Amino acid sequence: MMPKCFNKWGVLLLALVSLLLSSRPVAAQAQQSDQSKPPSYTMPEYNAFQAAQGEKDPQARVKLLDDFVGKYPNSTLNQYVFSLYYQTYYQLKNYQKSIDYADKLAALGDAVDPRTRLQAIQTHIQLFPYAFNAKAPDAHDQLVKERDTASSGIKVLQSLQKPADSKLSDAEFAEQKKAGVAFFYVSAGGADLQLKDYPAAIEAYKAALAITPNDAVTWYNLGRSYLQMTPPQTMDGLWAVARALNLKVTDADKIKDFLLKQIVAYEQPNCETLATAQLNELLQLAGASGDRPATYSIPSVTDLQKIAQSSTIVTLISDLKAGGDKAKMTWLALCGLEFPEVVGKVIEVKPASDFVELMLYTGATPEDIQAATTANLDVKVVGQPEASRIEKDDGVRFSGTLSSYDTEPAFMLHWDKAKVNPEDIPAEKGKKTGPHKVPPKKSGM
Known about the structure:
Layout: H1 6-20, H2 26-32, H3 43-54, H4 58-71, H5 78-91, H6 95-106, H7 114-131, H8 139-159, H9 170-194, H10 198-211, H11 216-227, H12 234-246, H13 252-267, H14 273-286, H15 301-310, H16 313-322, H17 324-334, E1 338-351, E2 356-361, H18 366-371, E3 377-381, E4 395-406, E5 412-420
């Protein structure tokens, strides 16, 4: 389906065409198109056309027009006949027939006044969304015709000269033409998008935005085109959709949800809440400019996997403490991941009803860990009530899922769904157990 701004563009172009077209009735144009030359049609032709034009009943008018074409297939009045045909079929809501006769009129080329030809082209473009059936056997050909018609509209409109009797200034006339050109670019882009010719759609939408940079729907469709390319141009696509949202595109809630899903699919983060934060940042940046800063990017799932594979608990803590983009990227890669065999010294044990909370410290070396007096890990041990037997200063190994971290008032890394290595849990009272010192630190995560 065409963009929802279609009617707005149509109104703009219709206003332009109305200003450009002669105010004389079609019959007068047919009779006096060039007073310096004798008529190139017979009076029976002219009278037959007059009878059709004067008929009020559109069904009866179609019959009179059919009779005219049957008798005078090569009449010089055909341009006026085709014009009356497509107007009549529009009245009858037979949009495909209306398009067919508008195309016949436009196909007359230079034999038709350029303003009349422009109106016929506009009729095709405006009625296409109502006549097009994506499931029709010739749907592809219809879309190609739509795109080509829009392209021809651009050429005709750009070459159009201001009428001598126009009340518009040269600047006003040029501006009116720009609005119409943008309309045709948007229409061509819509056809290309449905044809899956995404590079052509991008080119058309960008040309329209060069004229009307604040059109929200065009930004949205530009973003869709980028995202559907093979391979997708994800950053350009996300930026364009965000720009559309900032410009108050219709169905903003649905499009915002679409944008969030695109970010999640691109990154595949374990903590999807982080994608929401990135969405908000993207919307804020895109609201300031239509141009995406060269330095702005969102990491892909491949980027995040590389960070995760090269990270250890030590590098994780170091990166998060450093703050800035480094911390943001590291946390995006590691939030929600499970770390195996993290080594720590127990600073405090806090038994609760359904979990045991261990406040631990971990560091780069066993000596660093052993010397610690404050915690930097908050570990919720679930499903191991026996972990409450762990005592202060014990060394433990655990596996757990990273859930969040704090930088103020002191750095703290929070873990959920943790399990302590059973070997590090003291035996019940009365049973022998050895001392629990800090185990040797292993490399890797």
